[in-house]
Write a structure and sequence with these properties.
This protein has a domain of about 220 residues: MetI-like fold (Orthogonal Bundle), CATH 1.10.3720. It contains 15 helices and two strands. Strands 1-2 form a two-stranded antiparallel ribbon. The protein starts with a helix and ends with a helix. Helix 9 packs antiparallel against helix 12. The protein has about 325 residues and is mostly helical. It is a multi-pass membrane protein. Its main location: membrane. InterPro entries: ABC_transporter_permease (IPR051393), MetI-like (IPR000515), MetI-like_sf (IPR035906).
Amino acid sequence: MRQAVTHTVAHRVEGAAPAGGENGGMPHASGRGIQPRRRTSPTARRQRRAACLFLAPACIMFAVYVIWPILSTLRLSLYNWDGMSEASFVGLANYVELFHSPTFYTALKNNVIWLVLFLLAPPMGLAIALYLNQAVGGIRIVKSLFFAPFVLSGVVVGLIYSWFYDPTFGLLALILGRGIPVLGDPNYATPGIIFAALWPQTAYCMILYLTGLTTLNSEQIEAARMEGAKGWTMLWHVILPQLRPVTFMAVVVTVIGALRSFDLISVMTGGGPFESSTVLAYYMYDQAIKYYRLGYSAAIAVVLFAIMLLYIVYHLRRLLRSEH
């Protein structure tokens, strides 16, 4: 009797085994069975809650002062509004008018010129940083002199270079022996303003590279010296690869500064002569403040933001690919 019962139970267990698994009907924890739930410890929950509380103010400020203005500008670009009367929806009419405006293409061309010439700031800043990154007597005073343009206001820089370019009593006229109306000539106005803007921008890039040079791996440099690397070879193959994040930051900040250039143009030429030195940022200001076309000005801001975003995303992807 006992043998019959044992045989029946064994037969039922064998028949039920495939439904639960091969090991006595119990599923593997790592197989297709139910995964055991991991319980979060109270300490981990407190740490997560504390991290969220610390991040909340920054996230709220970012949403209020960055995300919301971007969305408001996108919405405003679809309206015709003078800032006082009721706004009327016009759809993409502001963009259509913008892309048919000759001043827009003049400003876009000047922005490209700014972008190309302004990219001289990172290599010049690197060269000055390499010169200043040495233990020499009195180097702190020299660093202060090179750092001074960065702390000057853009209005002050614009006034200094306006006097420098003055064809009657300016220093440039004294150097050349004759007066050249740099800011009064459509062919020279934009390069003259860019040359003035390069002064503080180079100082900013110099500061970035000086900070990066303090974080170099000394072991790699010593190993390269033992291998006979020096001069340009050392710079290109050892130092610059370690400065790649700093170079990325310097290029991004320089590009943003070139695309949003406004203060020097406002002080030195006011977009002239004959709108020859205007850029997108100044064109946006001109339409909003002088002509009360806030919707049209918002459309210019959206186009400028799109150009910045595309350029920054492109360089960010290149940086991430090179690191991987």
